[in-house]
Amino acid sequence: MEEDKRTFLRIPTNLRGRIRLLASDKELQLFREAPITSTSVSVMELKSAGVNEALVNALAGIDRKLDLLISVHSQDNLLDDFPHAVQIGEISGAGVKLTSTLPLEIGQMIECVITLTQVPIRMAGVIGRVVRNEDVSGVPGWAVDFTRVRDRDLESIVQFVFQTQRDELRVKMWE
Questions:
Q1: How confident is the model at residue 130 (pLDDT cuts 50, 70, 90)?
Q2: How, if at all, do strands 11-22 and 141-149 pair?
Q3: How far apart are the C-alpha atoms of 9 and 95, rounded to whole Å?
Q4: Who has the most CB within 10 Å: 4, 33, 100, 160?
């Protein structure tokens, strides 16, 4: 995230993530979040088909709960694939600053999965290179530049950054 090549807004944050170390920059990305699709029947479609509104609401509630259960199950697999926990202290579309008890080296390639929201769960996966060491309050920290990000994951990160900025502006407006 060098100053001269920064084209994304960087914000302070407190997100959790998981990483795995890569042997080279040629490794394929392991994390893949399913795209948001509209394969399920929408509430509006059920209502227009004449389904009772109480039943429509019950079915929508079940759908949300199933999504949550699937997310919890996916988290278990994530812990196996990405064994190292990290805290994300800053994020942008170009990289992150993270802290971890796992020692990293400058030049080390990592794959990182960032939990952007918890309910509903929204994650983004990136591959990046550790570019510098930056300890935070005595905890080892590193700046990581993204080297490969899928468009969908980049869009999720950028949306998170903008939503966070909007939320902060609204809070300041009421102070």
A1: very high
A2: unpaired
A3: 10
A4: 160
CB 126 within 8 A of CB 114: yes
The rounded Cα 6 to chain-centroid distance in angstroms is 20
Tokens 């570019």 locate to 131
Measured in degrees and rounded to the nearest 5, phi and psi for residue 82 equal: -125, 85
Q: What percent of the chain has pLDDT over 70?
A: 86
| Strand (E) or helix (H) holding 46 | helix 43-48
What is the C-alpha separation between 118 and 89, in angstroms, rounded? 17
Residues 6 or more apart whose CB falls under 8 angstroms from that of 152 comprise 33, 35
Give tens-digit pLDDT for 92-118: 999 999 999 899 999 999 999 999 988
Comparing CA positions, the residue from 48, 39, 22, 29 lying closest to residue 125 is 29
Task: Calculate ∠ Cα 139-109-79, nearest 5°.
Answer: 70
H or E segment to which residue 132 belongs: strand 121-133
